[in-house]
Amino acid sequence: MKLYWLLPFLLPGIPNAGGQQSTTGKNIAPNHLAGQRWLILQQCFASHDRESTLLDTVRAHPGDYIDFAGNGLAYGCFLGLHDTLEYELLGRDSLSFGDTPFRVIRNDNGNLVLYQNEEEKNGDYNRAVYILSREEEI
Question: What pLDDT is attached to residue 31?
């Protein structure tokens, strides 16, 4: 499963030029995503191990998007890279791209946040957050 363009999008609470993003907000039923196109605003990533924490925020290019087709495929473009990914609805507030699960949250300013967290027993973690906006709201 190709996730290379999706990986740089993700992490709540990473400071950026616009302030801090939060994953607090209202859950959105992921089945409402089918047939919708969302613009990608930014990707945030955090990786923490015993020695360091790496934080990275990447702002999208104008027009970068993810299009959730009703057939279980997501078509996207991020930083000039086009890709097609399979997605699956996992429940009321989650979906997965391949075997990578994401919580789906609509934050206070109406943006959609896809949040992924992998935590190990020793406290190490990887987190990713994609911040999306409806095309007509930009």
Answer: 59
- DSSP secondary structure, 49-84, as one string: -SS-EEEEEEEPPTT-EEEE-TTSEEEEEETTEEEE
The CATH-assigned architecture of domain 7-137 is Beta Barrel (2.40)
- According to DSSP, the residues that pair with 38 across neighbouring strands are 66, 134
Alpha carbons 57 and 127: distance in angstroms, whole number: 12
DSSP state of 110: S
**Residue of 64, 38, 18 lying closest to 132 (CA atoms):** 38
The Cα 104–Cα 30 span in angstroms is 7
Look up tokens 């087709």; give the residue.
Answer: 69
What pTM, to 2 d.p., does this model score?
0.72
Q: Read off the pLDDT of residues 67-95 as tens digits, 9 standing for 90 and up.
A: 999 888 999 999 999 999 999 988 878 99
